[in-house]
Amino acid sequence: MSDAVSAMDGTSITVAGRLALAIHEHRLPPGTKLIEDEVGEIFGVSRTVVRSALQQLAHDRLVTMQKNRGAHVAQPTIREAREVFEARSLLEPRTARSAAARSTPTDIARLQAHIDEEHLAIHAGDSGRALRLSGLFHVEIARIADQDTIAAFIAQLVARSSLIIALYWQKRTALCESHAHDALLRALADGKAGLAEDLMKGHLLDLVSSLDLRGAAAAPTSLKDALRP
Amino acid sequence: MSDAVSAMDGTSITVAGRLALAIHEHRLPPGTKLIEDEVGEIFGVSRTVVRSALQQLAHDRLVTMQKNRGAHVAQPTIREAREVFEARSLLEPRTARSAAARSTPTDIARLQAHIDEEHLAIHAGDSGRALRLSGLFHVEIARIADQDTIAAFIAQLVARSSLIIALYWQKRTALCESHAHDALLRALADGKAGLAEDLMKGHLLDLVSSLDLRGAAAAPTSLKDALRP
DNA sequence: GTGCGCAAGACTGTATACAACTTTGTGTTC
DNA sequence: GAACACAAAGTTGTATACAGTCTTGCGCAC
């Protein structure tokens, strides 16, 4: 346990981290207005710090800021959703391949522990935590590939994916996709680079196809489009 | 001409843009200390705005900020340099492929105009501007591919590449690589997706091999490593 | 009753003020 | 003369204050 975020002083990184965590775990739904005074009071810091945190999140596209109109938890459009997964499909499969070629027993053990935690969270019914761990798994793979720059991109894309899932997930595919993670771990452990790449590619395709990205959807249509028919 | 950045009021986006431009054009060398009061006075804004701008740039890795020790123009390490070009090699070739498949005559005309400007800047001896335009070319291709998310990543990577070039470029390859851009444009215009992908891959490889990324280099070694032998 | 205009409230954008930290220069002691 | 301690200058971290903008609710005219 113990997120790197939890035990620090009131700096903006921490506030940003706490907010990001809440967004990632679907405790702050897309569209929620984030009032600076309010957030500041919750965390016991001034608006200065909150503002800095919100700007960081806006830079990661987890929050949108409009001049004089405040900050809201982002509502990725369908187009943006497609773009996010397009970017992931360019970055992650080949990164998984590199990871398979470089992974050490220590890496594999840590990944295994990570997967165990995922299962635990799922069985405990903590779907928010499960979702977040499931995303972190992808970042971990980039770390194993020893590519911090790519890992940072993937971390951002994973966070945005969490918002996309909140908006466009269709429940029918309730079976959590942790099987895919198990298979990936095995491919990494065995050093099967090509297989790891293919598995990751397939995993991402599965993810996209579990979303409803046909235009008619219900969620982010900002009031103007929502009230037509 | 007329950068989108130039004519605006004193918001932090503008300050960040102006600073980024200066970094991109090698007018602010890596390692330069950016004192908040000083920058604020130059742009006629308060430290609040400057701070916000610096944080944005830090998020893009153009600037490093250490607690209580201020902001400096970043000095990418050799490792980071490799990572940046690794990320580019994952994103750009396949994005060039998409662009070739989608490009319209309007796109091609705009790209051609862009390249003409590049040549102009080179012949005018304005190497800073030439460098920046040359980077923007890569972003434009992602825009033609209609992938704003990927374009944003590439924009960041291109900006960081500018710092990397400032640190590790070996002058001997003085011939500016605008031939590569010409060839790419032709591939896009002809809709030759596979060729565009290959050309981009080769172009990036050429770029990397024009750098001196052997560990012994002179530049970013922060004093501690610099004073060993 | 409907529509317009205006005023109050709420929130954001920016500047300024103060506290805390880091660095640098000076003086004292051994 | 060298090393340490301390003081002063400079810079950042955070809070607060004020100005500007958007929203909303009320009242007045038609």
Topology:
2 copies of one chain form a homodimer.
Chain A: H1 12-24, E1 33-34, H2 36-43, H3 47-59, E2 63-66, E3 70-73, H4 78-102, H5 105-123, H6 127-144, H7 148-168, H8 178-189, H9 193-209
Antiparallel strand pairs in A: 1-3, 2-3
Helix pairs in contact in A: 1-3, 2-3, 4-6, 4-7, 4-9, 5-6, 5-8, 6-7, 8-9
The structure holds a DNA duplex (30 and 30 nucleotides).
The fourth-level CATH homologous superfamily of the largest domain in chain A is: GntR ligand-binding domain-like
Helix content of chain A: 55-70%
Biggest beta sheet summary of chain A:
3 strands, antiparallel
Number of separate structural domains of chain A: 2
**General shape of chain A:** globular
How many strand segments of chain A?
3
Order of helices and strands of chain A: HEHHEEHHHHHH
Please mark out the parts of chain A with pLDDT under 50 across 5 or more consecutive residues, or reply none: 1-10
Rg of chain A: 18 Å
Oligomeric grouping of the chains:
homodimer
Could you please describe the fold and organization of this structure?
Two copies of one chain form a homodimer. Chain A is mainly alpha-helical and 229 residues long. Chain A folds into two domains: 12-73, Arc Repressor Mutant, subunit A (Orthogonal Bundle); 78-209, Up-down Bundle (Four Helix Bundle (Hemerythrin (Met), subunit A)), CATH 1.20.120.530. Chain A contains nine helices and three strands. The first copy, chain A, has helices at residues 12-24, 36-43, 47-59, 78-102, 105-123, 127-144, 148-168, 178-189, 193-209, and strands at 33-34, 63-66, 70-73. Chain A has a three-stranded antiparallel sheet. In chain A, β2 and β3 form a beta hairpin. Chain A is globular, with a radius of gyration of 18 Å. Chains A and B meet through α3, α4 and α7 of A and α3, α4 and α7 of B. The first copy, chain A, binds a DNA duplex (30 and 30 nucleotides) through residues 10-11, 35-37, 45-49, 51, 67-71.
